[in-house]
Design brief:
- By secondary structure, the chain is an alpha/beta fold.
- It has one domain: TIM Barrel (Alpha-Beta Barrel).
- Helices cover about 35% and strands about 10% of the residues.
- Strand 5 (about 155), helix 5 and strand 6 form a beta-alpha-beta unit.
- The chain is globular, with a radius of gyration of 18 Å.
- Bound molecules: (1E,3Z)-4-hydroxybuta-1,3-diene-1,2,4-tricarboxylic acid.
- (1E,3Z)-4-hydroxybuta-1,3-diene-1,2,4-tricarboxylic acid binds near residues 78, 131 and 261.
- (1E,3Z)-4-hydroxybuta-1,3-diene-1,2,4-tricarboxylic acid binds near residues 131, 180 and 261.
Length: about 300
């Protein structure tokens, strides 16, 4: 089967620079995807976009190039609830990848057990309307109850303006809950303004809620250019991410978001994205927690402590 990319689609950047920042040993890229390849793993009929292919081999090559040791591969919405591309990628990684799946209410216990075997440890509930059709909350809560008993967690993706309406559902979830991309703050608003402070309060009041401090390229208004010849990209996002890292150092994760779906204006150099890390986790201790200790505790608890 062959697929036509969505018009205007930006392909991932082939030839990323080597980061100046050296990742700590055992670092985990805790948010990335695979797309297809569509000829082998067809994109879902209900998808809202058709991407370029981004295979597991290409993901593993990027992992090695950047200096990561492990990946957490999150099911992309273009594959709907067909988790084969993601699960096969986890299986092919020799224990160095975990997965986050999308499942529907009718998923069988046997399928969940197979996904667990492949390395899946979470499900993603997506509330971003441009990416998915609406799923009733009672269906999501039922799924959460089932996966909680397997020791999995829930990843949530939503836009900052929707947090108020969704918060009571999120706080009722019976698992660890991981927020994608800091709940997508509007970084043109002040750091101490009501929107971002509402997000900080949400984390402070709920100790089971974690945040990915990822996707500066998606959140930035200023964009990527390294100023003054420095490799210090996405400066307008850094204070937001740094605040989350320093306030909740034991509940943050970081990921590249490769292959960066749905970017409209530029495709990031993943090497430069890695160089964003020391601007948000400013010392070795914070970097180790963000990149090693926290993801290992959540995804490889058996190995945590001896990476
Ligand atoms: C991300 C962000 C996006 C897309 C998806 O699964 C997806 O399609 O997650 C987006 O378009 O904001 O985390 O990759």
């Amino acid at each position: 089967m062959s697929f036509e990319k969505t018009p205007g689609w930006l392909d991932w950047y082939d030839g990323p620079s080597r980061p100046a920042f050296t990742l700590p040993e055992g670092a985990v890229d805790a948010h990335c995807h695979v797309f297809g390849p569509g000829a082998e793993y067809p994109y879902a009929p209900e998808r809202k976009y058709t991407p370029c292919d981004a295979s597991r081999e290409q993901l593993f090559a990027l992992r090695d190039h950047l200096g990561f040791h492990r990946n957490v591969i999150v099911q992309a919405t273009c594959h709907g609830a067909d988790n084969r591309a993601m699960a096969d990628a986890c299986r092919a990684a020799d224990g160095r990848a975990r997965g986050v799946a999308t499942v529907r209410r009718d998923v069988s216990d046997e399928t969940l057990a197979d996904l667990h075997d492949a390395g899946v440890r979470g499900v993603r509930f997506n509330f971003v309307k441009r990416l998915v059709d609406f799923t009733p909350k009672d269906e999501l809560m039922e799924i959460a109850g089932r996966i909680a008993s397997m020791g999995w967690h829930v990843v949530i993706y939503f836009e900052a303006r929707d947090l108020g309406e969704l918060e009571s559902f999120f706080t009722a979830l019976p698992t660890t809950v991981v927020v994608d991309h800091m709940g997508r703050p509007d970084v043109s608003q002040p750091l101490d303004g009501p929107e971002f402070q509402g997000f900080i309060r949400f984390l402070r009041e709920n100790e089971n809620i974690w945040s990915k401090v990822s996707c500066p390229e998606r959140l930035s208004v200023a964009g990527p250019p390294a100023l003054d010849g420095e490799r210090a990209p996405y400066r307008d996002v850094a204070p937001f991410a740094r605040t989350v890292v320093e306030t909740f150092p034991e509940r943050v994760l970081w990921g590249t978001d490769w292959p960066h779906p749905n970017l409209k204006d530029h495709m990031p150099d993943d090497g430069l994205l890695v160089d964003f890390i020391p601007h948000i986790a400013v010392d070795g201790e914070l970097q180790r927690r963000l990149l090693v200790d926290n993801p290992m505790r959540l995804y490889w608890p058996d190995l945590a402590g001896d990476t």
